[in-house]
Structure formats: C-alpha cells, structure tokens
Amino acid sequence: MSRVRLGIAVAGMAASVAMGVAVWPHARDAGIWLAAQDDPAALADVRVNSALRNNTTLISDNIEAAFAADDADLAASFVELARERNIALGDDVARRVSDAVAEAGSTTQFAKGFAAGLVTGNADDLASLSGTVAGDLFVFGDVRDVVREGKHLAMGEDTDHLVLGLAAAGLAVTAATYVSVGGAGPLRAGLTLVKDTRKAGRLSEGLVAWAGRSTREVVDGPMLREAVAAGSVLRPTKTASAIRAAFRAEKAGALVRVAKDVGRVGEAAGLRAARDTLKVAENPKEIARAARIAEAKGGQTRAILKILGRSALLLATGVFDLAMWLFGALLTLFGFLSSIKATTERATMAWLRRSKARRLEKQIAAEAALAGSAIQG
Questions:
Q1: Taking the CB of residue 178, how many other CB atoms lie within 10 A of it?
Q2: Residues 6+ apart with CB under 8 A from 339
Q3: Nearest to 254 by CA among 220, 210, 224, 295
Q4: Which residues have C-beta within 8 Å of that of residue 217, sequence separation ≥ 6?
Q5: Fewest CB atoms less than 10 Å from the CB: which of 22, 144, 154, 315?
Q6: Which residues does the chain have with pLDDT short of 70?
Q7: What is the pTM of this model?
C-alpha cells in the first residue's frame, strides 16, 4: 500500500512538471503584459516582439510593401525598428530606403506638394501637409475653411461642424502662436493635422463621432453667420478677427487637448505618424497613448502602428485571461511543491519502515542466537 501511495506522489510530481512546462511560457508573457499595461511604449514593445517572433520576415515584408506603396517614410521607419532590435536587413535594403527617402525629400518634389497644400488645403503627402500647416499658420487656410463651412451653415446646407470648429479654434490658436513666438506651435500643427485628416476622409469613425460632438458648441452660430456674411478670404485678417469673436474658448478644452497630443506625435515622429494615429485611434485617450509611444520611439512609431494597428494604442486586453494564466502557473507550482512534499514524506516513511523492519529482524536474530547459546550451555 505504501508503494502505491509513493507511486501516486511521484506521478503527481511528474504531472506537475509537465503542466508547468506547458503553462510557463504563457504565464511569463502574461506577467510581462500585466507589468507593462500602463506604459503604452513598453506594451507596444512586448506586442511587436511577439509579432516578430511569430513572423521572422515581418519587417522585410513591410519594407517591400512600403516601396510598392511609394511610401519611403514608412520604409525608413521599419529600417529604424530593425536597427533598434538588431535585426539584419542587408546593405542593399538600407541603400534602397536611403535613396527613396532622398528622392521623396528632393527640393522640387517638396516645393510642388507644398504649394498645392498651401493653395488648396488638401494634403496627400508630407509636402502638401506642410503647405496646409503653413497656410493655417498664416490665417489663410483657416479663414478659407470657416468661410466655406460657415456659408453652408448660414444657408442651411450640410455643414462639416468638425472642420468648422477646428478652423475656428485654429484661428484663435494662431494668434496665441504669434504672441508666444511659436510656443503654441504643436497645438497649431495638431489642429491642422486633425482638420486635414478629416477633409481627406481618413479620420477614424470613433474620432469623427467624438470630435463632431465636441465641436458643435465651440462656435457661436449667429455670431459666425454675421462674421461670414461680412467676411471674405480676400480680407483674411479682418475676417479672422470677426471669426475669433465667435469662437468659445471655454468649450474647446477637450478639442485642444486632442490637438496638443496630435502635435506631440507630429513633433516626435513626424506628420505622417500623426496622420496614421488619427486613422486608427478611436478616442482622445488612445491619441494620448500614441503621443507617449511617439515620444519614446520616435521614427519607429509608424512601423509600430503599421504592425499593431489600433492594438498599439490599447491597454492590455483580456486582463482576466492573463491573470488566469498566472493563477494557473501558481496552482501548478503549488501542485509541484505539494507533490515534492508528499513524495518526500512517503519516501521517508517507507525508509523508516524498512529501517525499523531491519532493526527488528536483527533484534529477533540476536535474541534467537542468545537463546540458542543458553540452551547449548
């Protein structure tokens, strides 16, 4: 019976070891995820590392896809990501990316895109986006957008309240930018980025819904109609002053915070990273997390967003499941230690029984020998 109990204890210990081997990788990853859940940059690192383990050609594949899409900036972001993780890409790939970046940033190409963005207010690439920012900084762009949307509002036509509110806020911020000698620059750029991303139809549905609600109260409708009726893009300074009077700064707190975070992304990781953020983020909290990632990762940000998508901006999901993996690991450890304890106790008891049996046998044999000697004597 004792051998059976000892065998059960040994079997339990072996089963615990087998379960531990199976559970440990999941528990280890769960622990890392839970430890990083409040740090967007660290959590992004964990997720990217996991993605790279599952697909060793992920970076090279994305670089080729970026070339195919004529997006040298994204290819450069992946090269930087590979360099950070000591992933060899080869001299040929690095040279191709470098040449593509140089070509995209050539003076002629940039000047054409900049001029188009400045005049039309439509941004399709980095150069044209820089032009729209410049246009807004010099009042022209925001006045153009407010006059256009304001006339729609005055005539009862469909009005893009988000573009209207962003442009009105931009005019107010532009004045602050000049007063602070550029101190409000990131906010100014952030407002333009959100507005132009909206105009291009690339703002996420969640942000469209949120921003639409947030901007409806930012502008005083009657005062704006009066300003638009008397204003003109040909008199930008006078028109801007009238429009600023219709802007309710006290209602724009949430919008300003989002614009600041978008501006932080643009400053740390570039305008395209900010545009990518606006395509995947669904609410202000996710944009704030993107800003923290951009400030920590810089040029790698676009590659991270490309690999992870919106999940890069989410906290650790499935916390209950992660906690259950850790709990399972603890139970397995407890079972292993209990099996060791039971095995040790039962092995010790078996040894003690055998030792006691041997002593008893020796004692009986000694007593028998003594009795035999006494009879012979």
A1: 14
A2: 9, 10, 12, 13, 15, 16
A3: 210
A4: 248, 251
A5: 22
A6: 1-37, 105-140, 154, 173-186, 219-221, 224-247, 249, 315-343, 345-347, 350, 366-377
A7: 0.68
